[in-house]
Amino acid sequence: MRPTEQAGAGRGRRAAGNELVECALIFPALLALLLVVSEVAGAVATRQVLSNAAREGARLAVVPGEYGLTAEVQARVIDYAAANGVTLAAGNVSVNQDEVVSPGGGACGATNPCIQASRVSVSYTYPLSALLGAAMKLGAAVEMRNFY
User: Could you say which of 65, 107, 145, 146 is the most buried, measured as most Cβ atoms within 10 Å of its Cβ?
Assistant: First the structure.
């Protein structure tokens, strides 16, 4: 073998070793990034389910004939969330069918009449299992004008 061939062969092995070290350093970081992205995606999906469940409950709460039936509204919210993979308890759902809302944002009066509305709020503690067992509080609230 010529001396130049030996030097080239050693350089190739060294480069392959460097690539292996770089891969060993980058792989855990990429794996951690993948876990964070998947946890955030799960939290966003759960937040969307909570928003939709609160909207479904508020929609039922404003229907004529449903006034005062807060247990039915809570059951609708809990059922909607359960159908979409989120387990809620009755304590996580609050219903107020006698909320007074000022559409103009100020005090109620002749120029800014207030309206009766129903407000449904949902709270949930989302477990962040891949991130050191922590938890994140999620919630949603929907307010709709009463039709009764």
Answer: 146
Q: What is the DSSP code (8-state) at residue 91? A: G
Distance CA 122, CA 49 (A): 10
Rounded to an integer, the average pLDDT of 2-29 is 71
For the residues 32-45, what does the mean pLDDT come to? 89
- CB-CB contact of 73 with 57 (8 Å): yes
Q: Give the whole-angstrom CA distance, residue 94 versus residue 34.
A: 35
Q: Where are the domains of the chain?
A: 3-145
Res. 148: pLDDT tops 80: no
The identity of residue 119, as a single letter, is R
HEC string for 8-21 = HHHHHHHHHHHHHH
* pLDDT at residue number 18: 84
How far apart (Å, rounded) are the C-alpha atoms in residues 40 and 126? 11
Looking from the CA of 64 toward its CB, the CA atoms found within 13 Å total 2
CA distance 11 to 91: 67
Residues in the chain: 148
| pLDDT for the residue 10 | 56
In the three-class reduction of DSSP (H, G, I as helix; E, B as strand; rest coil), residue 108 is classed as: coil
